[in-house]
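Open question from group meeting: does this chain pack into something compact, or does most of it stay loose? Before anyone orders reagents, we agreed to write out a predicted structure and look at it together. Recording both the input and the output here so the notebook holds the full record.
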Amino acid sequence: MTKRKYYAVVRGKRPGIYDAWDGPQGAKAQVESFPQAVYKSFPTETTAEQWYRERGGPIPIAHVRSLPPPPPASAAFPAGLAPEDQLLAGRVVIFTDGACTGNPGPGGYGVVLRYRDSVRELSGGFARTTNNRMEMLAMVEALASLKGQPAITLYSDSSYVIDALQKGWAVRWRRDGWQRTGDAGREDVKNADLWQRLLPLYEQHDVTLVQVKGHAGIADNERCDQLAVAASQRRGLPPDPGFAAGGR
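Structure tokens returned:
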């Protein structure tokens, strides 16, 4: 059986950690014909990341990997909204997730984007934040990374974010100066800094939101969780300024 390898590309078209050599998403495409490319293969992702940090600094937020095809349609998705159906319809398919240890505590976000046969991953983390903020930031980073205005189907297990967008709560909060009515009267909306970034991105794109159940064996949702957890465990994580300012 062929052993799996990981490739650290410190100097190339797109530096990062790759789990495939061949193909348009592989490490070879990043170093081929690139002057003085610097890269190396490793038996584990951990050793690849360690070598990268020693030579290239922090791991880039964007990781490009060759992932397996999305899972087949199942009861996990509403009728007609399975990822492969959306891909066949020419839409961009995005999965997002957030993770946080302690809540608040070290946290991270993970994103898997698919379009046709292309796959891209994004991740990042902060030293002290919350799960809700990481769920939101995953969507922000995913939508902000897109070029043009493609049609998007976005899958998330966060009822907090999906309800606020689909039910118009976020629009109302913006109209009311990022305040809401709480038990004690008017109060500031939590995570207003991220809502101010997410809401315009959501409105600029044709986005269909699909809520999925977390930890239910949905491949790309599970992968997002892995990315988010791994990002939250990196050393030297930066502070989350929005959380420090009162975001939750």
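Observations to bring back to the group:
The two ends are 47 Å apart (CA to CA).
The domain at 6-64 is CATH 3.40.970 (Ribonuclease HI; Chain A).
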